[in-house]
Amino acid sequence: MIMLSIFAMTALVFMSRYLFLEPKLPLRLSPSLQRLLSYSGPAVLTAIWAPIVFTHEQSLWLESTNPYIWAALLAGLLAWRTKNILLTTVVSMAVFLLLNLVVFSA
User: Which residues cross the membrane (predicted)?
Assistant: First the structure.
């Protein structure tokens, strides 16, 4: 039963992607629907990172000793200023590691 569910979900995801990405299919979205769908990526990413950055053990963690907030602020600033994904990822992860292991380890 589990394998059937996995194959069904795989087929569903593949077909939903294929319908929008295959250029030979006559399916076209209206400009207003395309604009609406352009917000789905940032919304999903925010739903993933916000709980990681702002919560700790089921409670809100907005202290200055939260390394996640400092690394996220740095990542946002770097992404905005440099527009370089690799630089943003490497530098913000290094700063997070430094903060987590050295500065706020006590």
Answer: 37-54, 61-79, 85-104
Spatial separation of the C-alpha atoms in residues 46 and 18, rounded to whole Å:
25
Query: Domain coordinates of the chain in residue numbers?
Result: 28-103
Tens of pLDDT, residue by residue over 24-35, are 877 777 899 889
pLDDT number for residue 69: 94
What is the spatial distance between Cα 25 and Cα 15, in angstroms, rounded to a whole number? Answer: 12
Strand residue runs (E) in 1-106: 55-56, 59-60
Residue 55 DSSP class: E
Asked whether the beta carbons of 73 and 48 are under 8 A apart, the reply is no
To the nearest 10°, the Cα dihedral for 75, 76, 78, 80? Answer: 160
Q: Give the pLDDT mean for 4-31.
A: 86
pTM of the model: 0.67
